[in-house]
Amino acid sequence: MHGDAAAVGRHTGTTTDSAVMSVELRADRDLCASCRDHARVALEGLDGVEMVHVVVGTPVLHVRYRPDRVDLTTIVERLREHHIRVGAEQTSLKLAGMHCASCVSKVEHALRQVPGVLSASVDLARMQVLIDYLPSQASLDAFVEAVRAAGYEVEAVPPAGSGLPQESEFEREQRLRDEEYRSLMRRFIVAAVVAVPVVLLMVPDILPFSMTDEQLRLSWWVQLAATLPVMAYSGRDFYVGMVRAARHRSSDMNTLVGLGTLAAYTYSAVAVIAPGIFPEERLAEPFFDVISVVIALVVLGQALEVRAKGRTSDAIARLMELQARVARVLRNGGEVEIPVDEVVLDDIVIVRPGEKVPVDGIVTEGSSAVDESMITGESMPVDKTVGDRVIGGTINKTGAFRFRATAVGKDTALARIVHMVRQAQASKPPIGRIVDQVSGVFTPAVMIVAILAFLAWFNSGKDISYAIVAAVTVLIIACPCALGLATPMSLVVGVGRAAERGVLIRNGEALQTASGLEVVVLDKTGTVTRGEPALTDVRPVAGGDPDELLRLAASADAVSEHPLAQAVVVGARERGLALSGAADFEAIVGHGVRATVEGRIVHVGNRRLMGRIGVDPAPMEALVDELADEGRSAMYVVADGALLGVVAVADTVKADSELAIRRLQELGIEVVMITGDNRRTAEAIARQVGIRRVLAEVLPPDKAHEVRRLQAEGRRVGMVGDGINDAPALAQADVGFAIGTGTDVAIEAADITLVGGSLLGVVHAIEVSRATMRNIRQNLVGAFAYNVLGIPVAAGVFYPLFGWMLSPMIAGAAMAFSSVTVVTNANRLRLFRSSAETLAEMEKRP
After folding, report:
1. CA-to-CA distance for 58 and 36, rounded, in angstroms?
2. 523, 651, 722, 734: which is the annotated catalytic residue?
3. Hey, CA dihedral for 41, 42, 48, 52, is it positive or negative?
4. What's the longest Cα–Cα distance across the chain?
5. % of residues, the chain, pLDDT over 90
6. Sign of the torsion angle spanned by Cα atoms 101, 107, 110, 113
7. Where would I find the H helices in 203-235?
8. Which tens digit of pLDDT belongs to each residue from 372-386?
């Protein structure tokens, strides 16, 4: 029962009522009595759940429920809302044969019907489906079978040890995309080569010579024969896809293009082979030019779309390029250069100036400055010495050092970042799910409109060409592709742009919610401030020597392990002061320290210590009160009973906190600071950074309650924190931002992770989210407007009023380039620069 923390779910049987099902779920940690109460609160009020039993001390819980009233996905989501993460394993499949939004809804629906599948999200931009499932109920074979049953294929990956070259997922995607582009361009060239003479023959007036009626009819036979290979080669995917969809009683983009061109060819062939079938007054010329041109334009549009999609993955490409190819390690007492994939845990890795750090680790020898901007977004190089952590993919600037490998392969920070970005790109924001629902009925609706248009024109008394043109044009101009690409293309680019600045967005829902935040709550310690005290003031009595004051205080504090004492010691060393050894050291709990330095008895501590040793603090009391008002902790320094002055330390504000907070306020977001510190200190910090609303003296368990209170005001709330005690508040908030330098618990509870420690990451995340949602809305408005306006024009609705009758060739061009327009608009996000990026660059300038 205490095995792997990855979730498993198992149907353990049914009761005598066959409509009741029991399932065993496994959480990601052992469950306590409090967890049992949370599970009951989460599920016992849920319609369809009959029993909840938690095995306290294990990760196991049993749920009995009625599948006809509540599904397993809802149960798991309710548990997660109450902070019981029933971990589900996740896998992705690479799909083939998908072209439009109706394909997305069919695949997702098919996979969700597989027992044990909690969710399935198709990323049309990358032709991939991301599946959350309970592994004891579902298997890879079941997923593949479900996809094939829906009429699509799963691309195979060469198994390890097969002798075939092993590619990374990104390299494989790039190769497949290049192959698809080349294939589409070959098919376009064939169709275009045939289309040009066919169009010329269909419009003999533009030829430099005249044709007799007999020659014209002979040319129709030539066109009949020439168009057939275009359909068989260049258009084969449309017809194969149409037949496959029909076998599964569904329809998609292939159905529309396939039916349209097939209808045009069928009529044209009959008009050439057996013209007597049609009444002479209703006979029209064939449409061979329409078939070749439409297929050529649609295939060209698909090729341009594939090429544009490739550019949306630039962020992933740049992240992958950060990975070092080789590493220099110590083996058998000597340096050996090996592929980075062969580095193992605890290897000693050697890094020279200008080289990339190959994997994650801890410095064991040497020191240097390392550029981590490509991972954390922090602009300045970070000094590294023995005991400091280094991240794979960063660049060593100056010195040489050695480090012990602590994470390799898929466990490195860079690999986890790439994985998280890919997951987010494959997810779906709420607006995308609405589009999928619309797209699910789009293609059948278009087919109905095409039939109605044909019947209306057929019964209008016009020759049959009007009915054929109207029906074919409606089928061809309708573009579910543009609808299907509108959301995922923007999401892929937006999430990638965020990642480039060290902002990892967990999923599309977090991105959409972040774009609408109205309040951002900042934890003080480690978020607004550095999270560790630093020396801020050295104030001697009148006529005193500040260096001597600090040297004595630091010498006395050197033995102490108290954070405030260590801040004084570090401050003295940074100023180049030589400390003396201390004897007879004594830590006086709640007061300060006492030590003998150079034969003098030195005391460093608070006002209570002054009272205890009989020293009057009056000469410095006003200054101490002033420092306290500024959020600084002042300590009196006494030598041989004489007051020498005051040294002060504080948890100092991060360099860019004020900039970030001001920018958040300019974005119309109220910034609130929350802390367990006393109100005096909290308000002093708040004044420094321009925060007007402070929640002070809040106990860790109450932070989530304060977030709920803000949500009760009817506003969307984001929470930024870094500690274990912030995790409940991060989970409670509409969007939780975790500082990447904080604890794993906080990061796990968050929706967005800031790899660096800068609050400018919050600004960047919100601005990128807003830009992405704006881009998605532009795509959707364009795609809907195109279809809403294009379909009536294609059907000939405006012909009686304005004489507008759209050619199927123009419809083909419009359909092809509507998708390209959506992808191109999404790619504009690659040029987006947030104010956080501008501010960071300004900080970097001398």
Report:
1. 11
2. 523
3. negative
4. 125
5. 18
6. negative
7. 213-229
8. 876 765 656 788 889
DSSP 556-601: HHTT---HHHHHHHHHHHHTTPPPPPEEEEEEETTTEEEEEETTEE
- pLDDT tens, position by position, 384-433: 889 988 988 888 988 899 999 998 888 888 887 777 777 776 666 777 77
Rounded distance, CA 43 to CA 712, Å? 23
Q: Which amino acid is at 700?
A: P
Six token digits for residue 245: 């969809």
Please give the model's pTM, rounded to 2 decimal places.
Answer: 0.70
Q: What is the dihedral of CA 575, 577, 582, 586, to 10 degrees?
A: -20
Residue that the structure tokens 């690479």 belong to: 94
Alpha-carbon distance of 66 to 64, in angstroms, equals 7
Side-chain-facing half-sphere of 392: CA atoms under 13 Å: 31
Give catalytic status of residue 17 as yes or no.
no
pLDDT band per the 50, 70, 90 thresholds, residue 1? very low
Contacts by residues 201-208 (CB-CB < 8 Å, ≥ 24 positions apart):
201/289, 202/285, 202/286, 202/288, 202/289, 203/289
Given a cut of 80, whether residue 256 has pLDDT beyond it is: no
Please, which residues have CB within 8 angstroms of residue 838's CB and are 6 or more apart in sequence?
none
Q: Torsion angle of alpha carbons 464, 468, 471, 472, nearest 10°?
A: -170
If residue 119 lies in a helix (H) or strand (E), which one and from where to where?
strand 117-123
Cα 384 to chain centroid distance, Å, stands at 30
Q: How far is CA 417 from the centre of its chain?
A: 10
**Residue 501 gets which letter from DSSP?**
T
Q: Is 39 within 8 Å of 59 (Cβ atoms)?
A: no
